[in-house]
Amino acid sequence: MSLRQYEYALAVAEAGSVTAAAELLHVAQPSMSQQIRNLERELGVTLFSRTPTGSVPTVVGRAFLREAEVAVSASRRARATARAGADELVGELSVAVQMGFGTRQLPGALGALRRRFPRLEVTVFEEPSSAELERLGRRGVLDLALMAACEQTPDDAHHLGDEEFVVVLGAGHRQLAADRVDLRELEQEPWVRFDRDSALDGVLLDVLRNSELTPATVARVSQTATAVRWAAQGLGVTLVPASVVPHGYEHLARPLSPVVSQPVIAVVRHPAGPAETALLELLRQETWNESAALALVS
Q1: Angle made by CA atoms 234, 236, 238, in degrees to the nearest 5
Q2: What is the topology classification, in CATH, of domain 162-261?
Q3: Cross-strand pairs, 144
Q4: pLDDT for 15-26, tens place per residue?
Q5: pTM (2 d.p.)
């Protein structure tokens, strides 16, 4: 077995077929098919069920792919570490962000990282579920994650600052006259909410319960920008981290009284490699503790 075969199997699972995976990796389809067959023969199991619509991992295949993903990630980190020099860092860095966190700070840190190490390949994705971020971290898939809470040891978890939340109101809303909004003033308002397993929806439910309020849901969305824009149009109100409010909508955002905030924690894989260590240091240099919410209405 080889890591290349692992990468092929992972690509087939991601793309849904051998043909699509071959195009994704820029290899010949017959060659990829042969490598998958050789891998299955060597393992003595069937990794994929061939269906009219594509290749679907079997139960055994899913278990194998979980471990293959860990092995491939470890190999990439090992290559990056071995080739890291004073002025050169190559390899891949996988970063995950709890949706809504680091919207202003992460791009600057990543830009600085790429300028310093132009041969480093960085993949970043947003994850709405904090539980899923924890799971991916435990599987060893992520190099660095930004989230609100974690079960890591202090050596792995680094508190960068805090993210304040704001309520976004429709144009002409009566509460725009206030510097800060008491949630009880929104008791009769419908809410633009996030998906049920989203950490952001969990924040809203927690703060409303603390105010003994039950939200009336008018819509559910998956993206913070969508929630802000729909709220701005008067569909309902929404609650988002202050840093995600798009340019041009700041005048419709108000911080809450009492303040609603969450810590921003960077969780780095252990042991940390040179790429994630460099990114962590750049993130520390960003401004996290300023009251972004207050700046919106100043």
Answers
A1: 115
A2: D-Maltodextrin-Binding Protein; domain 2 (3.40.190)
A3: 95, 268
A4: 888 888 888 787
A5: 0.67
